[in-house]
Design goal:
By secondary structure, the protein is of the alpha+beta class. It has 9 helices and 24 strands. It has 2 domains: 15-140 and 360-470, no CATH class; 147-287 and 297-338, Beta Barrel (Thrombin, subunit H), CATH 2.40.10.120. 43% of the residues are buried.
Length: 478
């Protein structure tokens, strides 16, 4: 990597005073600013001596520190001249507000208005690299997989589907007015002694898009067959990740599914769902080389498959019959949450009784998802081979104030092993777990050392992104 201006945000370079506290205009920030990230306090402040990496190990990371530690060592961090120049860059035009109605037609009109706004923005040559990145162009073209259907042609493949289907159930939520909502679920644990099972499903039928319970008197049930329905206890639901965990009692033995690792881009998969009448629906496709950040949900993966049933909660399985993801949304492609993220959420709940997720107010895509021609140009002109492209920055956010703009490319310093949005989310969830374990107060942040590449100006600046966390069910800036 070519040396960047101010290569270490904590040492060297020309020093300038920190940006003034309480600055009202957009584009200024003191790194000691606290951001209220959740609605409950987590307990007394403690200094974190180490953080958890994406494998759950505990070690000191050069690219990560806790904001409170910096404050204790001398107050505000002095910004380099390069960081001040980065924060002073002009802001892009403001996006129109997200429609309050949330209807499909209004959302489509809102998306069209956003595209038109940025298409009219003067970014220079239409085919320039900075224009390609800022306007979210240059993604890998996606083609549907035709080979995945071959699974059905083998007897082993058919047997595998039937075996997994024994763990696939229906989940229903009945409102007080009698309305019934359905989703699919998957048995992931079964206690033979206690005759109790845990069901992983979507959160969509029990909570609103704001993360609130639809109705406290809602009755949740699990359908184990066409004729067997049992009451379920909701252990937790989290609408940020779109998942819920239920517990049921069963008088007969149940078969839990085998949980695998994260889905792999381009691999063939099967998706299983249940009709309202419990009929099994099997769809075949592949994991697309596609990223569509959606309200700070950078962690979605997408599957290409056709099904007449538009349902959430269906398990995504690989050719070995392992559950590697869960369908949580259709936008319109099936949005998948990786099993690796689900595991971390369940572990966090079991340990702390809450789930914290990262707050950075950035919508990101991966450099590796660019068309090959643009990846080659990015490497040849800017010596960038990996990292994350900024698709959106929340107005008035910390990220915007430190100078991050749409179309920039961000690299994580000393964390080169993270190259996909799912790997990034796994890593940040590890930090969130440490956040809860150390009982840091809600104004605490974790400092992530980043390198920001301004593609148009052909400059690179190293700075610190203060990362916050929230244990609210959802946090959206719309």
């Amino acid at each position: 990597m070519k040396p960047a201006a101010g290569d270490d945000p904590d040492s060297g370079g020309t020093r300038t005073p920190a940006l003034p506290t309480g600055e009202e205009s957009r584009g200024s920030l003191t790194h000691s600013e606290g951001i209220m990230l959740a609605e409950e306090e987590t307990g007394p402040t403690e200094e974190a001596q180490s953080v958890g990496d994406s494998q759950g190990k505990r070690r000191r990371l050069e690219g990560v520190s806790v904001g409170k530690e910096r404050a204790a060592e001398g107050g505000e961090r002095m910004l380099t001249a390069e960081e001040v120049a980065l924060a002073a860059r002009p802001l892009p035009p403001q996006d129109p507000p997200y429609p309050e109605s949330g209807t499909l037609s209004d959302v489509v009109a809102w998306m069209d208005a956003k595209d038109a706004l940025h298409d009219n923005n003067d970014l220079g040559d239409e085919d320039s690299l900075c224009n390609i990145l800022a306007l979210r162009k240059g993604r890998v073209r996606v083609t549907k997989s035709v080979g995945s259907a071959a699974i059905m042609e083998s007897m082993d493949g058919r047997d595998m589907i039937v075996n997994v289907a024994r763990s696939v159930v229906n989940v229903s939520a009945t409102e007080p007015d009698g309305e019934v909502l359905y989703s699919t679920g998957i048995i992931i644990e079964y206690d033979e002694v206690g005759k109790r099972a845990k069901i992983l499903s979507s959160s969509s039928i029990m909570c609103t898009k704001e993360g609130k319970l639809r109705n406290p008197n809602q009755k949740v049930s699990v359908h184990l067959s066409k004729d067997t329905v049992v009451d379920a206890r909701v252990i937790f639901f989290n609408s940020h990740y779109g998942i819920s965990l239920l517990e049921i009692s069963a008088v007969f033995s149940l078969v839990p599914a085998s949980l695998g690792s994260a889905p792999c881009y381009g691999h063939n998969v099967s998706v299983l769902d249940r009709e309202v009448d419990y009929t099994l629906v099997v769809s075949y496709g592949s994991i697309q080389c596609l990223e569509y950040p959606f309200f700070e949900r950078n962690h979605y993966m997408f599957a290409s498959y056709f099904s007449h049933l538009i349902c959430t909660g269906g398990p995504v399985i690989n050719s070995s019959g392992e559950v590697i993801g869960l369908v949580v949304k259709h936008i319109p492609q099936a949005a998948i949450v990786s099993t690796s993220l689900v595991r971390k959420c369940i572990q966090m709940w079991n340990q702390f009784g809450r789930i914290a997720h990262p707050i950075h107010h950035l919508e990101l895509t991966t450099v590796r998802m660019l068309e090959m021609v643009y990846r080659d140009e990015l490497w040849a002109r800017h010596d960038i081979s990996s990292g994350f492209i900024v698709a959106e920055v929340c107005p008035d956010s910390t990220a915007e104030k430190i100078g991050i703009r749409r179309g920039d490319v961000i690299e994580l310093i000393d964390l080169d092993h993270i190259s996909t949005v799912v790997e990034l989310e796994e890593f940040l969830l590890g930090l969130a777990s440490d956040f809860l374990e150390k009982k840091l107060d809600l104004s605490s942040t974790v400092d992530i050392k980043i390198r920001v590449h301004d593609i148009r100006a052909k400059t690179s600046v190293c700075t610190i992104l203060p990362m916050g966390f929230s244990d609210a069910a959802v946090r959206s800036y719309y």
